[in-house]
Structure formats: C-alpha cells, structure tokens
Specification:
Elements lengths: L1 H19 L6 H19 L2 H12 L5 H19 L2 H24 L2 H22 L6 H8 L5 H23 L15 H14 L7 E5 L5 E5 L2 E6 L6 H20 L15 H15 L3 H14 L1 H4 L4 H7 L17 H17 L7 H13 L15 H4 L6 H20 L3 H6 L4 H10 L9 H9 L6 H15 L2
Parallel strand pairs: 1-3
Antiparallel strand pairs: 2-3
Helix pairs in contact: 1-2, 3-4, 5-6, 6-7, 8-22, 9-10, 10-11, 11-18, 15-16, 18-22
The structure holds cobalt (II) ion.
The site of cobalt (II) ion has 4 residues, from α10 and α11.
C-alpha cells in the first residue's frame, strides 16, 4: 500500500508542477508521464496478490480496531475500482481530455454549442459508469457516492430543501437594507505586498512551512505528497484584495487538515482525509467562521493597515468587517458570499439530478441554468461564460461533486459551534491572534482520525448529533442581522 502511495504522490508532484511552474512546451511529455504513473498505480492496486492478501487479512479477527479499519477500507476501494472495466476507464480518460479542451474553447467565446457534443458524450458515459458502480434508488446516487460515501438524493433533497426557505427569508430582509460599500477592498493593492501579507497570514494561522509551501496558480488548490509536504496555491488580483485573501485562507484550511493527518498511517486509509465534505468543512471553517469574523480582524486589521497604509489607513475596522461580509446575489459561484453560495450549489445539484434521470438533456442546459438563476437569485445571466460554462467540473466528468461544498459549510458551522462550547476562551484567543487554540482542537477531534470515521460518524462523535442545518442558520442569521441591522 505504501509503494502504491509512493507512485500516487509522485504523480501528485507532477500535477502540482503542471499547475505552477511547468513550461508550456512540456504539455505532451507531462501527459505521458502522468498517464504512465496512473496506469502503474492502478495495476498495483488491482493486482491479484494484493487482493488475496486483503481478503485473507479481512478474515482475521484478533486485529486492532485501526488495523481492521485499514483493511476494510482498502477492500472497499479495491472493490469500487474493479467494478469498472479497464476499457471503460481508458475511454473515460480519453473523453475527459477532449472534453476539457472543448470546454476551454467554448469558454473563450462563451459559446455552449462548442462544448455540447463532448458534454453529451460525457453524460452518457457517466450514466454507464453509474450502472457499473450500481446503486439503489436514484441513478445519481451512484455518482454522489463517489465523492461523499453514503450521500443520496434523498438525503441531499432534505438538506437543500430545509436550508432554502430560511436562507431566502434572510436574503429578502437583507435586500431591504442599503447595500454595503466594499470599495475599500477594490483599490490598488500591489502584487508583492499582497504576497508578503499572505505568507505572513499563513504563518500566523499555523501553516507549517517546514512541511509545506505556497505558490501561485491560476485556480487556487491544495495538494499533498504526505502530511509532511503539503502544497497550497493562491492567486492575486491587484484590484481586488478579497480575491487573494479569502482563497488563501480557504486553502490554508485544506492545508492544515492535510498537515494534521497521521504520518504514521502513510499510504493507508487512516492516513487519508475523511471525505470531501469534511475536507471542505476545514477550508470553510477557516475562511468564513474564522477568516470573516470580527474577532480575527481585531487582531489582523492593524497588521494589514501597516502593510497598506495608503489603501486602508483611513478605513475603520467596522466598515472593513462589513465590506468583507457583503451579501449580494451574483453570477459566479466561487465569488459568492456565504449566504447566496448555497443557491449556486442547489442549482447545480438540481440540474445534475435532472440530467442523470433524463428529465432534461444536455442541449437544455443553458436555458435551464438561466431560468434557475432568475428563480433563485433573481439575476439575469448575460451569457454562458458567466453562466453554465463557468465551472470546470463537468468537463472533468465530476458529476456529484458540488453538493460536498455546501455540506462542508454546514459541517463547519456545527464544528465551530462545538469548538466554541468546548473552548470558552476561543473568541478571545482569536482576538489575540492565538489561532493555535483552535488548530489544536481540530487536530485532536478531526485531523488525527484520518479516514477512520465517515462524515456522519465523525459529526456524531464530535457534536453528539448528525449534520443539523440549524447551526449554520443560527450562525448566519446572528451574524448578518448584526451587520445589516435587521
Ligand atoms: Co475547497
């Protein structure tokens, strides 16, 4: 298992390099190298020797709990991988490369028609994949389960249904108030100084630079080659301070989680993250519950003002705090505030569900998309580029991924509330810049377990109940009532 991990992490190094430093002429050679390494690791993982060993081990009763977990999870992964024929895997990866290219081309001109044939091919393949994987109930369940084990249409319908109305009510109230002025964030913030500030921010919040780095890439992401080498990336927009700052804190949350996974379990399931929604709970917790809180900026704002005296010297912390929490329905998911964000996810979830069950076809997507943006957020989509072509996910074949983003925010609110209950000094410590209090708590209650528990098991173990949207709604309504004077 550790040798397979060696290959996979070597592959991750190549992919990280591709997004950060690789010269453009290397595209073809790199694609070969990546393909060879993934083929090798796939071969090793589906090898009969490993399979027989796992089945043998699975029969032994007197193993320790963690050992048993490692074996049963490895067997689960093995069985998932072997459900899909090798021929299909090759076909899917070939269509994915072409589909990604056609999405890039379509986005350039904002013309969905360019992407449509490949996307139709992709959707057909995904339906076939669902059949290979098998499912109970809705066909979409097979795909959802790939990203969030145990997630179903039934469960997500319930979650999304229950947050919709309370969120809508809160947004309606906010819309009656004067809009927040965020012009202070949109001044000119030179690249170099933003970079320096971000590195300082990461250090203060506990990112271990002896076990990781930050670099620049077009789309921010986190990857790791072990818990002792975690790479995060950011991007800088000189005319929008918020762009870099909160994506940096978001990736920091992912990075801290990766650095906190047990290195003694290298290559084994217990050394991996619990699930995508738990991963996202860590990024959203740092980005929003900490990074957009007043307490956090009571500590950071004076530091920030020193870095940007011209831009922020005359700004009060109150107006800065309001600016960084401005709520406004918008077109782009990744730039949305933490309230309207969920509607972006709900729209994608409903669309994918309908696509999988055949209620809509690929050529219906633009019209359906625009209709839903009008319905949920009351905005007109000017073109497909800012509409249904904005996300990379479908071109990668990632159907079923989006819901994990919302689940992550909802878990974050529940975990943060639990942390505040258990650590009465938490808010004061954050005001003093002592982020270690929170980080140690997360390490102890979440990070150290790796993949030992499912999302729901972890949530119950930590908070005494499964995911409950009331925590997010209470957090949101208290925070925004105060900001908007509701
Ligand atoms: Co994330």
């Amino acid at each position: 298992m550790q040798k397979i991990a060696d290959l996979r992490y070597a592959l991750a190094v190549l992919q990280w390099d591709q997004e950060t430093y690789m010269p453009p002429k290397s595209n073809e050679a790199r694609a070969r190298q990546v393909a060879t390494l993934s083929e090798l690791s796939h071969q090793m993982f589906t090898d009969d020797g490993l399979k027989n060993l796992l089945y043998e081990l699975n029969k032994i009763n007197d193993l320790q709990e963690d050992e048993k977990k490692n074996i049963s999870l490895s067997l689960y992964d093995y069985e998932q991988q072997t459900k899909i024929p090798g021929e299909f895997v090759r076909k899917l990866s070939e269509v994915t490369s072409r589909s990604f290219q056609s999405w890039v081309d379509a986005r350039k001109t904002g013309n969905f028609k360019i992407f449509e044939p490949l996307l139709a091919e992709m959707v057909a393949l995904k339906k076939q994949e669902a059949d290979y994987l098998g499912y109970e109930g809705h066909i979409y369940n097979a795909l959802l389960n790939q990203y969030e084990r145990g997630a179903t249409v039934q469960m997500l319908d319930r979650v999304f249904h229950s947050i919709q109305q309370p969120l809508k009510n809160l947004l309606d109230k906010i819309s009656t108030k004067p809009p927040v002025d965020d012009s202070t964030l949109l001044k000119h913030f030179p690249r170099e100084q933003q970079w320096k500030f971000s590195m300082d921010l990461l250090k203060k919040m506990g990112f271990d630079f002896n076990a990781g780095r930050q670099d620049i890439s077009e789309h921010p992401f986190t990857t790791s080659f072990s818990s002792t080498d975690v790479r995060i990336t950011t991007r800088i927009d000189e005319n929008d301070f918020g762009n870099m700052t909160w994506s940096c804190i978001h990736e920091l949350g992912h990075g801290l989680y990766e650095q906190g996974l047990p290195s003694s379990e290298y290559g084994l399931p217990l050394g991996e993250y619990a699930s995508l929604s738990i991963h996202e709970s860590q990024s959203r917790l740092w980005e929003n519950n900490v990074g957009r809180s007043l307490a956090c900026w009571q500590f950071l704002f004076p530091v920030l003002q020193q870095s940007f005296p011209e831009q922020l010297g005359k700004t009060s912390i109150e107006s800065f705090y309001k600016a960084i929490n401005k709520v406004q329905p918008s077109l782009i998911r990744t730039e949305a505030d933490e309230l309207t964000y969920h509607f972006h996810v709900i729209i994608r979830y409903e669309l994918e569900k309908k696509l999988m069950e055949g209620a809509i076809q690929v050529n219906d997507i633009p019209a359906y998309w625009n209709e839903q943006y009008k319905k949920y957020l009351d905005i007109d989509v000017p073109g497909d580029k800012q509409g249904c072509l904005q996300d990379v996910h479908w071109s990668h074949g990632s159907f079923g991924y989006f819901p994990t983003y919302s689940l992550g925010s909802l878990y974050a609110a529940q975990f943060f509330k639990e942390a505040s209950n258990q650590l009465p000094e938490l808010n004061v410590d954050i005001q003093k810049g002592q982020f270690q209090t929170l980080l140690s708590w997360l390490r102890e209650h979440i990070h150290q377990y790796g993949r030992k528990y499912t999302s729901e098991e972890l949530c119950v173990k930590l908070t005494g109940e499964p995911l409950n949207i009331e925590y997010f709604m209470k957090y949101a309504s208290e925070k925004y009532s105060q900001i908007y004077g509701l």
